[in-house]
Design a protein that fits this description.
With 215 residues, this protein is of the alpha/beta class. It has a domain at 2-26 and 80-116 and 175-211: P-loop containing nucleotide triphosphate hydrolases (Rossmann fold, 3-Layer(aba) Sandwich), CATH 3.40.50. 47% of the residues lie in helices and 15% in strands. The protein contains 9 helices and 8 strands. Strands 2-3-1-4-8 form a 5-stranded parallel beta sheet, with helices on both faces. A 3-stranded antiparallel beta sheet has the order 6-5-7. The structure holds BIS(adenosine)-5'-pentaphosphate.
Length: 215
């Protein structure tokens, strides 16, 4: 089962990726995480990506594609993969199709997590992430037991620099202009399934399982 999770910033792509990986053993490929890992290493790719990410703009296709191809090359034919945050425009979608075809692979399902703007702003401005293990919290929806401290490993929690309200609004605008067109792109290929992502985590996940024929 090869899946793409499509949706605005804050739709819950990372959250539901974690649940799908837990339940189905899929390989999770998040281009946002790959870029942040490069940034942490201060590699040339990471440094180039930083200026775009800080502004909430898309990183150039060529940079992201290089990371994605590396991640796809590491996939062993098995349970399948889950793409989170890729593709983000039609050009990336075309390159993905070509790359997968060259490896006799394809996408089975695109899950479109449909979320409203107000929900996104609340979710992203309240998101906190563990510096050590990457666990994700929310100051209201999923607070840690001790403020600022990760329940899982005791690490410090931080706010992503692109999760300020100003940058979230910019990211939503970029999503509307560049990524939203992919909904029709995958609808015409008859592999799109839409899910109401305004609901609670568990209710949204229930709908995802239904769309995947797993419930
Ligand atoms: P990326 O890291 O991919 O960010 P994003 O797409 O903006 O998505 P987010 O990670 O913000 O949100 P999410 O949908 O994963 O939500 P989450 O589950 O964490 O990209 C960052 C940047 O990298 C981009 O702006 C761009 O610059 C660059 N980039 C990445 N990929 C690229 C590409 N392909 N091309 C070019 N540039 C690229 O949830 C958010 C919060 O809400 C959490 O606190 C969570 O606990 C909570 N939550 C989630 N679901 C629910 C729910 N149902 N109910 C209650 N709370 C919930």
């Amino acid at each position: 089962m090869n899946i793409v999770l499509l949706g605005a910033p804050g739709a819950g792509k990372g959250t539901h990726s974690e649940m799908l990986v837990r339940d189905f053993g899929l390989k999770h490929i998040s281009t946002g995480d790959l870029l942040r890992a490069e940034l942490k290493k201060a590699s040339p790719v990471g440094l180039e990506a930083k200026s775009y990410m800080d502004k909430g703009s898309l990183v150039p296709d060529a940079v992201v594609m290089k990371l994605l191809v590396g991640a796809i090359a590491g996939i062993k034919h098995g349970n399948g993969f889950l793409l989170d945050g890729f593709p983000r425009n039609e050009s990336q979608a075309g390159m993905l199709e070509e790359e997968l075809a060259s490896r006799n692979m394809n996408i089975d399902r695109v899950l479109y997590l449909n979320v409203s703007k107000d929900v996104v702003i609340k979710r992203l401005t309240g998101r906190r992430i563990c510096k050590s293990c990457g666990a994700v919290y929310h100051v209201f929806n999923m607070p840690p037991k001790r403020e600022g401290v990760c329940d899982k490993c005791g690490g410090d929690l931080y706010q992503r620099p692109d999760d300020t309200e100003e940058t979230v609004l910019r990211r939503l605008e970029v999503y509307r202009k560049e990524t939203e067109g992919l909904i029709n792109y995958y609808k015409t290929r008859k592999i799109l399934a839409e899910v109401n992502a305004d609901l609670s985590r568990d209710n949204t996940y229930g709908l995802i399982l239904q769309k995947l024929g797993k419930k």
